[in-house]
Amino acid sequence: MNSPAKPYLIAPSILSADFARLGEEVEKVLESGADVIHFDVMDNHYVPNLTFGSMICKALRDYGVEAPIDVHLMVSPVDSMIEQFLEAGASIITFHPEASSHIDRSLQLIKDGGAECGLVLNPATPLHYLDYVMDKVDQILLMSVNPGYGGQSFIDSTLDKVRQVRQRIITSGRDIRLEVDGGIKASNIRAIAEAGADMFVAGSAIFNQEDYKAAIDEMRAELLLANNS
Ligand SMILES: O=C(CO)[C@@H](O)[C@H](O)COP(=O)(O)O
Ligand SMILES: [Fe+2]
Asked: Strand 139-143 to strand 116-121: parallel, antiparallel, or no bridges (unpaired)?
């Protein structure tokens, strides 16, 4: 059985939003039914692209955004960025284990700062990174594209990985969210949910549409059809 323990969460990635109007974009996507704001931090070192830092996260909080902000750190090293994002009001912070020298310490740093913590595994990153942290993580993020850019195609081998991680979560007996990120759209979200995911990042499939609500509603309709029994 692949049944997730929590309702499905849709997390638009602001990487595909209009940065010149970021506050309005975030407001609009939340009004359109988004559950969480996914915040992609890239450093032109761990990944070959550069986005935004903690000041933008703080600016969104100051603008009045109260929804959970899910910070996906694609940076190396990670610990100084974790501290900055804790101060900036991040709700969830995930990082790539190969970008941290001391994975357990980085996870504990996030927890001690009052945020939820998790690891991100790239398409070719093995699951063994999860072996000794299942008692600690609140969330596991499986990348379904290679990190660095929005608008890429979903890598199908992720589905098997999702099934395997769902089994690990069930075995752990803990309530750990399983998030998938990259190339998600209405046409594939149901299969990803049926494999065991319960949190879905979508950037281009939402922000590249005229009507954000229609895009999110279409994804929710597909999720309602997901058969997890
Ligand atoms: O972390 C990343 C890319 O590195 C993602 O969060 C993307 O921003 C998702 O964008 P789409 O694939 O949905 O357009
Ligand atoms: Fe992301």
From this structure: parallel
